[in-house]
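Structure (tokenized):
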């Protein structure tokens, strides 16, 4: 038998509030911003649950998806249309951040799985651009944010003759260049802070990544204005290495994974994949 992975997506609506009672209003707002409102704020959450197990040689399945829907759906229904802080007991002493909510889902789902089927990952989207992942490591999670920057480039190698460049790169070898709205998903892997419930505050991650993208890449002709590409083609494979090196200086050892989307058809990735 072979090990297989399956993912089922669920959706629910809920509100929540971030607030540390031992902090004053100013400190809470400095860390959480408008998310401290006593009335809460809401999300259309998306939950992706990935299971792993041996593929049954008779059914050809890791687990019947109708059974997956029934077991996990019952848990998700507890969260739907609630104010997480007050309607659910799990968050009486922990912040209902994406990291902690993912961890709670793991704890609630795992006991009801059939023998031989295991949780691999719980991924929770608060928006289309922000999500957290939990892999069962008690106090650790992965937190991710998508960013967009615009730049132009020409794909050209000094190690190839002009005819070879045109053959290898096609239209992308146009000497006048062409552009993209690049999308970058930056992920950090850290312990979940016991007070804030976060691996890294969203505001901190946004500031560090946006400062780097604005200074180094936004609005630039990569092959002509970014020194890193003076001796190498400005391909997305090389670009993602450049981004990773730059963000390692900003985020240190907590930088976990980078995904780069050049077009709707072309994606690139670097970093740890956690048993995937």
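Design, position by position:
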């Amino acid at each position: 038998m072979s090990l297989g992975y399956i993912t089922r997506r669920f959706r629910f609506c809920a509100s929540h509030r971030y607030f540390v009672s031992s902090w004053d209003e100013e400190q809470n707002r400095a860390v959480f911003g408008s998310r401290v409102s006593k009335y809460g704020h809401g999300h259309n959450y998306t939950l992706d649950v990935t299971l792993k197990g041996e593929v049954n040689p008779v059914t050809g399945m890791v687990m019947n998806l109708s059974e997956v829907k029934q077991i996990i759906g019952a848990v998700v229904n507890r969260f739907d249309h609630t104010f997480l802080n007050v309607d659910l007991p799990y968050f009486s002493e922990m912040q209902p951040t994406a990291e902690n909510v993912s961890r709670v889902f793991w704890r609630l789902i795992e006991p009801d799985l059939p023998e031989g089927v295991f949780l691999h990952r719980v991924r929770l989207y608060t928006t289309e651009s922000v999500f957290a992942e939990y892999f069962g490591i008690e106090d650790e999670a992965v937190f991710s944010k998508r960013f967009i920057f615009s730049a132009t480039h020409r794909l050209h190698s000094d190690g190839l003759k002009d005819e070879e460049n045109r053959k290898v790169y096609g239209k992308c070898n146009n000497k006048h260049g062409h552009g993209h709205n690049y999308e970058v998903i930056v992920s950090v892997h850290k312990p979940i802070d016991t007070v804030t419930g976060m691996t890294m505050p969203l505001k901190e991650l946004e500031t560090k990544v946006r400062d780097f993208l604005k200074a180094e890449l936004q609005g630039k002709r990569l092959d002509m204005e970014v020194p890193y590409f003076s001796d190498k083609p400005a391909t997305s494979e090389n670009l993602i290495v450049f981004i990773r090196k730059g963000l390692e200086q900003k985020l240190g050892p907590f930088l976990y994974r980078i995904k780069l989307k050049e077009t709707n058809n072309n994606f690139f990735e670097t970093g740890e994949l956690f048993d995937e």
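Reviewer-requested clarification: The longest helix spans residues 236-251. The chain has a mean pLDDT of 95.
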